[in-house]
Amino acid sequence: MEVFAEFLANIDNPQHRERTEEVLAWVTKKFPNLMPKIAWNQPMFTDHDTYIIGFSVAKHHLAVAPEKAGIDHFSDEIVQAGYDHTKQLVRIKWDSPVDYPLLEKMIEYNIFDKADCSTFWRK
To answer: Where is the YdhG-like domain (predicted)?
Structure first.
């Protein structure tokens, strides 16, 4: 979590900072083989130098970015969880619970789907 310390310290809203830290700590604990890093000023996790999932903080939500393939694959479940999404990210409102089983499935999907990927992003 040390890699995220400066990012977290720069989140002004204490509740947003706490929620973001909670999610990042969960990913770190649940997927210890993923590499935590900051890139493009955002926290993310990689596997064999390929992007798995990233997060960003907005005024009204925590954004989760599993790439377009992850959004497409889980679109129905994202909606069922009560989240809205774009082609590239899922918005978890600050006052909504985090659907950790769904987040786990998205991460596992990307790890499996990108096992042989030799680039950072999908092509």
So the answer is: 16-111
Residues 6+ away with beta carbon under 8 Å from 11: 17, 20, 57
Helices 100-113/14-30 angle, 10° precision: 50
Provide the residue type at 41 as one letter.
N
One digit per residue, the tens of pLDDT, for the chain of length 123 reads: 799 999 999 999 999 999 999 999 999 999 999 999 999 999 999 999 999 999 999 999 999 999 999 999 999 999 999 999 999 999 999 999 999 999 999 999 999 999 999 999 998
Query: What distance in Å separates the CA atoms of residue 106 and residue 77, rounded to the nearest whole number?
Result: 10
Residue 14 pairs with which residues in a beta bridge?
A: none
Distance CA 77, CA 54 (A): 19
Q: Tokens for 94?
A: 């600050």
The domains found in the chain, sorted by start residue, are 2-109 (3.90.1150.200)
Whose tokens are 């903080």? That residue is 57
Pure H helices in 1-119: 5-9, 14-30, 67-80, 100-113
